[in-house]
């Protein structure tokens, strides 16, 4: 085992153990007594149900991660990467076509193998706890739509990246970075209008008190809101949410229909104020810039390691290739991804506090935001007392009790 194999194997095992420790601590942090903040909001039986939901999802996550670990290590050490390489090389296609087939077959195999777990999660776990509204027809349609988009968008992009490394020498990473950035920006503009409607129906919010209140609020903070959409989230789940995406004339704010059903007008305005806060505080732009810079660093490092013979020897490949180098570098890069994901989640949690503060300051009330957060937690069976280490590794949003505490302490803002 060479140094590359040692780093990759160590990263896989450390990541698995970190998740195991975090999940164990998270289960131990569950409290049988309902927090005072939620008394009168969370029924005792519903609170117990939320804890069981956390336990079931944690156990299921352990099963899936263990299966993934065994599958990955088995495929690696039994020579699966080399066997597949010999298979696709034997078909005699152009190296770029061969690369597309090699990477595509690995991704497709991983997708198909994980499909039963996704089915069980949707139709057993989510069904058991009253969330699932997905029909088998919708599930199958989502699968093939996602697969089709991956082929239509990911296929040409991957072919271009392979071609740059094949033909442009030391400048390949710059061309890859430029093209990837263009695609990222392009998707930001087309996703709200062309991609998202493939999966959900977006209907303009009908005239009435809610629409008037939201547009009045948008004008009060100088936010150019042209339209507001209701998304048929109930098509798949009873869980509630809202989101903001896109830029310029293509930006879109959407409320799940389940959210509108369960919240008051004041609470919905507070939720929209939070989403607008992300825009006004430039969180979306910051995330995009970080993503672009990250891709540049990744492609530069890829250019340094993709020709390292030891990387291919670590996976028992007899003939180095660009396409296998992409896969192996991705596994070698995992420690950087882990550190970066933790850092980005720390930033994301700070952004959530900032958006909450913006919502409270501009709506001139803190209780609407607090009530909205409470209802979202109850309806989604959120874990109210996650362990700090689990939050550190996995949470993009602060735990709800910390958000409420920060809002209450911030009354002096107004």
TrEMBL record:
Molecular function GO labels: metal ion binding; metalloendopeptidase activity
Membrane-spanning segments: 60-79, 99-125, 146-166, 172-191, 288-306, 326-347
Cofactor: binding comment: Binds 1 zinc ion per subunit.
Family: Belongs to the peptidase M48 family.
Pfam annotation, one family: Peptidase_M48_N
Residue intervals of the CAAX prenyl protease 1 N-terminal domain: 27-201
PANTHER family: CAAX PRENYL PROTEASE 1
Record protein name field: Ste24 endopeptidase
Membrane topology, record value: Multi-pass membrane protein
Subcellular location: Endoplasmic reticulum membrane
Top-rank taxon, per record: Bacteria
Main location: endoplasmic reticulum
Cofactors (names): Zn(2+)
């Amino acid at each position: 085992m060479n140094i590359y194999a040692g780093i990759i194997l160590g990263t896989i095992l450390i990541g698995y153990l970190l998740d195991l420790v975090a999940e164990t601590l998270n289960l131990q942090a569950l409290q049988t007594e309902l927090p005072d903040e939620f008394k009168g909001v969370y029924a005792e039986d519903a609170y117990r149900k939320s804890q069981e939901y956390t336990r079931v999802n944690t156990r299921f996550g352990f099963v899936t991660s263990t299966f993934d670990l065994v599958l990955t290590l088995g495929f690696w050490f039994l020579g699966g990467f080399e066997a597949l390489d010999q298979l696709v090389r034997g078909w005699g296609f152009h190296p770029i076509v061969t690369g597309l087939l090699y990477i595509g077959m690995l991704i497709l195999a991983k997708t198909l193998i994980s499909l039963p777990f996704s089915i069980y999660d949707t139709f057993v776990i989510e069904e058991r706890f009253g969330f699932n509204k997905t029909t088998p027809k919708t599930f199958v349609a989502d699968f093939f739509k996602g697969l089709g988009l991956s082929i239509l968008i990911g296929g040409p992009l991957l072919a271009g990246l392979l071609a740059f490394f094949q033909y442009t020498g030391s400048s390949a990473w710059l061309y890859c970075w430029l093209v990837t950035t263009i695609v990222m920006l392009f998707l930001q503009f087309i996703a709200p209008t062309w991609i998202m409607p493939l999966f959900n129906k977006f209907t303009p919010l009908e005239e009435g008190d809610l629409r008037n209140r939201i547009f009045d609020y948008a004008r009060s903070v100088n936010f150019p809101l042209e339209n507001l959409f209701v998304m048929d989230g109930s098509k798949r789940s009873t869980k509630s949410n809202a989101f903001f995406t896109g830029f310029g004339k293509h930006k879109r704010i959407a409320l799940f229909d389940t959210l509108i059903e369960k919240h008051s007008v004041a609470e919905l305005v507070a939720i929209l104020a939070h989403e607008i806060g992300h825009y006004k505080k430039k969180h979306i732009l910051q995330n995009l810039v970080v993503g672009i810079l990250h891709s540049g660093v990744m492609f530069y490092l890829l250019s340094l390691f993709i020709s390292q013979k030891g990387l291919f020897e670590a996976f028992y490949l007899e003939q180095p290739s660009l396409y296998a180098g992409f896969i192996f570098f991705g596994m070698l890069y995992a420690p950087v991804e882990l550190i970066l994901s933790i850092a980005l989640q720390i930033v994301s949690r700070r952004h959530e506090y900032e958006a909450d503060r913006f919502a409270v300051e501009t709506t001139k009330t803190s209780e609407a935001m607090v009530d909205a957060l409470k209802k979202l937690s109850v309806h989604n069976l959120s874990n109210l007392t996650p362990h700090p280490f689990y939050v550190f590794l996995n949470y993009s949003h602060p735990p709800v009790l910390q958000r409420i505490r920060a809002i209450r302490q911030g009354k002096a803002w107004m």
